[in-house]
């Protein structure tokens, strides 16, 4: 196993591929089992769809032996089920409201923080089909057993790979420096594709709500749990510092898989469990998936690349952050066009697919993950390297425009759910793997290779400790900036559809969300490249000041509550949101060094959890509740939203002051020099 984790010969790849196939077989079994168990309303577990309002159970039974057996034990027709079930989960706003929710959910799917979006409207569901599903679940729990076995297998596989990766502390410097560098970048992108899945949860929160039989308040709690784990993000940083990127990513992939499986168990066992138990399972699963995606996947590969490419760290990190944002749109697109019922196998199959990909892809990525050794491997990009990075960016921008375009046209009713659209997205997402064939012209003879530590920076690394950094003012100035920008970005995105509705332009919600997602993705790439290329003219601290100023302007423009101002504010907020998370990684690296880079960066991520809780779950709901007229359940109009965005303008104003102060303090020296 250690060979497979440190080298990239055919035997190593074969071992990793075998692991992935094994996981996929188990996942496929679970998905097929859940397809058959949870989609009886489609007529067959083989995927033959029928009109859910007119399907007759006896006719469907002629096509599948499964339904024949089921009907023998449970002679309940759909018509009888419909009479017994008055349809309590039917959309409360009628057909028009149902159609609008379909469009709204798809339109904001590409946003990284769409999970916090609310609404309270329910997708149309067949009461008869839900009654059949309920009866079937009561009479059989084979799906629960399958998912539990899958979870146990994932833990065992993850533990074995984690043990192997932790033990392989040294390896030879690669024979081909170019291959080492681009395997690291491409495989880090693979990890980001997995991490991006957690940001697509907003696209299927309505299906999760219906499956668990909960309310929007319950879903909001699960959403809060997704990012609550960031409060402990420095534990992921500690794993990176002590064990290195391979072990940390293995742990992240395993926990991410386990998190999705816990959500899946809560869904397939919803009628066998009490409400507190299934909500606890779902919340725990969301916390594991969210924590691992942010702290053990995204953060880890960005730190590894920041250390490995000192002259191009912002460009590489910016690319990886853009992959993260774009991946969220791809996962949401797969849900809407491939898995979403009634045209797809449904939520359980989607969760099973995500879980299997999370474990398989992270194991596959281990062949390229490392911290490159000091020396030629860390040299600045040459012309050929810049061309390769440009190719990766072209692939990513193509996928980003594809995601946003499909989502926008679907939200406008121009496109219908089509699985082929999802398969095209997968194909575009796999294009970066073509760069794994990159080779340099000159290679070092094997006998000249020396052992190098590839996993962890090591205790002898330069920099300051976390205990020293946290006592300095600079640490908290960055923390405040991140709190303000993240909170404002999430608040803008989660309320965009409602804001535009109050401004008299409800049909523009798809355009607004697409604009935010696209500018957020593109700004990560652009600012990363520019901050490296022109660092002698514009420092990274200047970029932070510019980002904070954009956030202030964006929030003020949104508070005006006119269509033009809202769209311009959304554009500026997307630019600010994306650019900040590109610059912050190299800034922290350069300010504090690599001695405890992981722990310090993890502690900075805690500001995101604080912003999500204080701004999104406390401040905004309180303002909206106070603005709600007596006798009504929600507020609308300018008076509802203006005050909240004026307050966010003030918070980001404080962030701008912090950025200016930080820029002045670090004009001539870094904290690493002052605190050492």
TrEMBL record:
Start and end residues of each Nodulin-like domain: 181-407
Residue runs in coiled coils: none
Database matches in InterPro entries: MFS_trans_sf, NFD4_C, Nodulin-like
Keywords annotated in UniProt: Membrane, Transmembrane, Transmembrane helix
Span of domain NFD4 C-terminal: 471-667
Membrane topology: Multi-pass membrane protein
Transmembrane segments: 12-32, 147-170, 182-201, 221-240, 247-268, 288-309, 316-338, 350-369, 389-410, 416-436, 464-488, 508-529, 541-560, 566-588, 600-621, 641-662
Subcellular locations according to the entry: Membrane
GO cellular component: membrane
Matches recorded under PANTHER family: RIBOSOMAL RNA-PROCESSING PROTEIN 12-LIKE CONSERVED DOMAIN-CONTAINING PROTEIN (PTHR21576:SF158), UNCHARACTERIZED NODULIN-LIKE PROTEIN (PTHR21576)
Full protein name: Major facilitator superfamily (MFS) profile domain-containing protein
Lineage: Eukaryota, Sar, Alveolata, Dinophyceae, Suessiales
